[in-house]
Automatic annotation (TrEMBL):
GO molecular function list: ATP binding; ATP hydrolysis activity
Keyword field contains Methyltransferase: no
SUPFAM superfamilies, A to Z: P-loop containing nucleoside triphosphate hydrolases (SSF52540)
Organism: Brevibacillus panacihumi
Domain ABC transporter, first and last residues per copy: 2-232
Name of the protein this chain belongs to: ABC transporter ATP-binding protein
Domain of life the protein comes from: Bacteria
Coiled coil: none
């Protein structure tokens, strides 16, 4: 449904996208994750025909975004990270306004709008003025606006930003319903666990480079190759850190109180040998255990060193 081929975008000397290439299949909920400034919004703006790339191609539904922007706009619903609302309109009037802009007949709009409000759980707010809605409600209304012309693709830039836990859960349930309707959805965030709850596939971008792509469970399995070991010492912390950093299977060592936190890429037998080596070398090890890395640690491990 969406193809991006060697996409580059420069702003003067700064290169926001550095040959980005990826493909998203129809009906997929794709999570685009990376820190602020990584290139997520730039990519989405290009897909939404709002920004021209410096080079490369991007296709939506078979249409190249720079050559066939009108056809692409019929296929997409785009919600930027910051979007305007008309405060002097009710929720129903707001959707009616955008429906009219898409040349949807009035009789059809009257049928569609109640359905959209029900989908985003705002039926009880149809007569409420937009400026009276909470942030979460405005986000859901913005999502309804994206759907007013029944697009095949939704491009949602940081839709969960600033939402409280309940509002994020409501958004997640709406996205599940849209996936069941066959929509292809691109959703961005700088928070990996937030997307892991919502998406089938994720792509991690850092400084304009795609550094990981795949199903959430596949990326998680890949990163389990790096274990997190916690070693509690009585003293000699600096010596132990220096000693560990010389080991081939140790990727990083940090000091937290009486504990050393060690990134380790070896197998179980090599882990036993590392523990034995510390003991033989005379380091006062009081405890030694392995912990499960969480999704934030996975993100940090994947992007480590990309921008250096």
């Amino acid at each position: 449904m969406i193809q991006i081929k060697n996409l580059r975008k420069r702003y003067g000397k700064m290169e926001a996208l550095k040959g980005l290439t990826l493909e998203i299949e129809k009906g997929t909920v794709f999570g685009f994750v990376g820190p602020n400034g990584a290139g997520k919004s730039t990519t989405m703006s290009i897909l939404a025909t709002l920004l021209e790339p410096t080079s490369g191609q991007a296709y939506v539904g078979g249409y190249e975004v720079t050559k066939s922007p009108k056809e692409v706009r019929k296929l997409i619903g785009y919600m930027p990270d910051f979007f305007g609302v008309y405060d002097n309109l009710t929720a129903e009037e707001y959707l009616d306004f955008y429906g009219a802009n898409y040349d949807i007949p009035q009789a059809e709009r009257k049928e569609i709008i109640p359905q959209l409000l029900e989908l985003v759980n705002l039926s009880h707010k149809r007569d409420a003025y937009v400026d009276s809605l909470s942030r979460g409600m405005k986000q859901r209304l913005g999502l309804a606006r994206c759907l007013v012309h029944n697009p095949e693709v939704l491009i949602l830039d940081e839709p969960a930003s600033g939402l409280d836990p309940r509002a994020r859960i409501e958004l997640r349930e709406i996205l599940k319903e849209l996936r069941n309707m066959g929509k292809t959805i691109i959703i961005s965030s700088h928070i990996l666990p937030e997307l892991a709850e919502m998406c089938d596939v994720i792509g991690i971008v850092e400084e304009g480079n795609l550094v990981a792509f795949g199903r959430v469970d596949e990326i998680y399995a890949r990163m389990q190759e790096t274990k997190v070991l916690r070693i509690r010492l009585l003293d000699r912390f600096e010596e132990a850190m220096s000693h560990l950093r010389q080991k081939a299977n140790v990727s990083q060592v940090t000091h937290e109180g009486n504990w050393l936190v060690v990134g380790f890429t070896g197998d179980d037998q090599q882990q036993v040998e590392l523990f034995r080596d510390l003991a033989v070398s005379g380091f006062p090890v009081a405890a030694f255990n392995e912990e499960q890395g969480d999704l934030e640690e996975i993100f940090l491990e994947i992007t480590k060193g990309v921008g250096s």
